[in-house]
Specification:
This protein has 403 residues and is an alpha/beta fold. The protein has 2 domains: 115 residues, NAD(P)-binding Rossmann-like Domain (Rossmann fold); 249 residues, Dihydrodipicolinate Reductase, domain 2 (2-Layer Sandwich), CATH 3.30.360.10. The protein contains 11 helices and 16 strands. The strands form 4 sheets. A 9-stranded mixed β-sheet has the order 13-12-11-10-6-9-8-7-14, with helices on both faces. The radius of gyration is 21 Å and the shape is globular. It starts with a helix and ends with a helix.
Length: 403
């Protein structure tokens, strides 16, 4: 009930009447998270369990669908348990970061009562879909590049939040791949593939050739900073740069470079279309509660009002493959030079924020010109293709052993 699950509880409360929360589960159910009193479980007749299988077995007959906003390594087993009980599933993003596990989940979902929805935040945002429709209609000319830059400061406590945080591999040897790219900002990666999807509104471009450089300032196994270049199967180029190694706060920007215009989409603020002929089209974005609207959309699908979920497990495949390929290309996670790493105490004094001198400039240069950062040394990242996915595990095992 804590962590991101709290947002789903808030959404269910706001949508009361359209849906009814019948039960919830948390291993620490006897110690409800701070602020949960406002959820009014007794008044709303919400049953509370400490084990998810006990909840499913006790309540399956009165449930239509289940929300799974749990740690990523638990997604597959929980998804299967729900499907086996005939329950539809809303699965928080990412569905998994293991390509093999994703295929297992896709097979399991074929027996589901209704297709699973993967809750990537912004795919159903009306303004975003309107821009995609204009792209498909050819109004902006050919889409040439999709660019994303994201700086989300996370303190050292963020990487201590669980046993799998910042890890490449789990204790069972399976890929975990927790990072800014695969987890915290995964929806922006998914957005980028959505923009580049060439065939329909509900289409995501498949990665064809990927190059990546991965870095860390924090003492973790995986990367906290990522530079990725991907050429999609339809020849659109994606350049994505993101980091957690920066001061507190979040900032992000999506850019679509087209033959006749450049579109900039700033989540929570506005979008603008700068035409080559000098025109500027700018629109403020209305408030958009991603969790509420995604839950509302899945309800609409389950009622037969829309043709499919906002993102299915199959439609998550381009994202999961791209995320895996960045590790195969990079081969390792490099440490930033220690002289560049700055430290700032967090507000509670129990943790600290790490930031890297010159990182913001390097990220902007990468997006603008494709210039790989100097920290790569003389080596340009190795290009890889989906045919290289079978190398993922051996790459991760080698990377995890590097100092």
């Amino acid at each position: 009930m804590g962590g991101y699950a709290a947002f789903h509880h808030e959404a269910a409360l706001k949508l009361e009447g359209m849906l009814r929360l019948a039960a919830t589960c948390d291993p620490a159910a006897d110690r409800l998270p701070q602020g949960s009193e406002a959820w009014n479980f007794p008044l709303r007749r919400v049953k509370v369990f400490s084990a998810y299988l006990a909840m499913l077995d006790a309540c399956a007959g009165e449930l239509d669908w289940v929300v799974i906003p749990t740690p990523i390594p638990l997604h597959a087993e929980m998804h299967r348990a729900c499907v086996e009980r005939g329950l539809a599933v809303y699965l928080e993003k990412p569905p998994t970061l293991d390509p093999d596990e994703l295929e297992e989940m896709i097979v399991a979902d074929q027996a589901a009562s209704r297709p699973t929805n993967v809750g990537f935040n912004f795919i159903i945002q009306p303004e975003r879909r309107a821009i995609k429709a204009r792209l498909l209609a050819g109004e902006f000319g050919r889409l040439e590049e999709v660019r994303f830059i994201g700086e989300w400061g996370r303190s050292s406590a963020y990487f201590q939040r669980s046993s799998w945080a910042g890890r490449l591999l789990g204790t069972d040897g399976r890929p975990v791949l927790d990072s800014c790219f695969g987890n915290a900002m995964a929806h922006f990666v998914h957005n980028s593939l959505f923009w580049a999807g060439p065939h329909a509104l509900q289409d995501w471009a498949a990665p064809a050739v990927v190059r990546a450089a991965l870095f860390r300032a924090h003492e973790i196994e995986g990367p906290d900073s990522v530079f990725v270049e991907c050429v999609a199967a339809n020849h659109v180029r994606l350049r994505l740069a993101m980091t957690h190694a920066c001061p507190p706060g979040n900032a992000q920007r999506e850019e679509l470079v087209c033959a006749r215009a450049t579109i900039r989409f700033v989540v929570g603020s506005h979008y603008e279309i700068a035409w080559l002929d000098g025109r500027l089209e700018r629109r403020k974005l209305p408030d958009f509660d991603a969790v509420v609207e995604n839950q509302r959309a899945y309800c609409a699908f389950l009622r037969g009002e829309t043709p499919g979920p906002s993102t299915s497990l199959v439609q998550s495949r381009p994202f999961v493959h791209l995320n895996a390929l960045i590790y195969v290309s990079a081969g390792q996670v490099r440490h930033f030079p220690s002289v560049l790493v700055q430290r700032e105490p967090s507000g509670d004094g129990q943790a600290e924020f790490l930031s890297v001198d010159g990182l913001s400039v390097a990220m902007e240069e990468f997006l603008k010109a494709g210039t790989w950062p100097d920290w790569c040394g003389e080596e340009i990242p190795t290009p890889v293709t989906p045919l290289d996915l079978p190398r993922l595990r051996e790459t991760l095992r080698a990377a995890a052993k590097m100092p």
